[in-house]
Amino acid sequence: MGLPREVSADSHGHLSISLPQEVQEHISRTYQPVSRAEKLEDLHLTSLGATATIWPDLSCGMRDLYIRFDIKTCDAHSFGMLLHPSGDGKAHKLQISPSAKGDYTVSLFTDFPPLDDFWADQYKLYVPRPVDGPELVRHESLDLSTGITVLIKGQTVQVLCGGRSLCFRLPTPAATPVASFGWFVEDGTIELTNLDVRLSSNKSRI
Q: Cα torsion for 148, 67, 55, 71, to the nearest 10°?
């Protein structure tokens, strides 16, 4: 379901997950950077008491999408990425929340709840039902100084950050280009730097 992973021991003896150098080189060599008009090497978002969003117009269709970025400054309740948006404004969410200790919590949320039992059973849809709410995956107390890497391949979203991995197959609206994404910030200011956004070509699939 996901990319190859390289697992090693960090300075504390804990397992650390990263993208193998060979995979990184393959992506850099074969994935195409977004057009100059849409390439944002730095991103600044501010919102006071609300949520601000920005949606890059990538015109990427059904191709895979590679995104990497560093956090320059963060003075916000949370920020992150909106994934697989629908026409009514719903979207899955990769949420990054800072702590007072200087580390971060990274979570993956879904915003497409299934039908309730009455309607699902009536039509025998047998759709999955989240038990613990919309949060799908979470890692806490992460050091994100080495950056965050996100790869969207079809319905699969893979995130590598702070020596950890988040991977999930997200339900996607049929009419939505699967590689669509946006940025958001909740109540505060975020500055991202070293943004690298790339689209796969027909010969670059991993």
A: 30
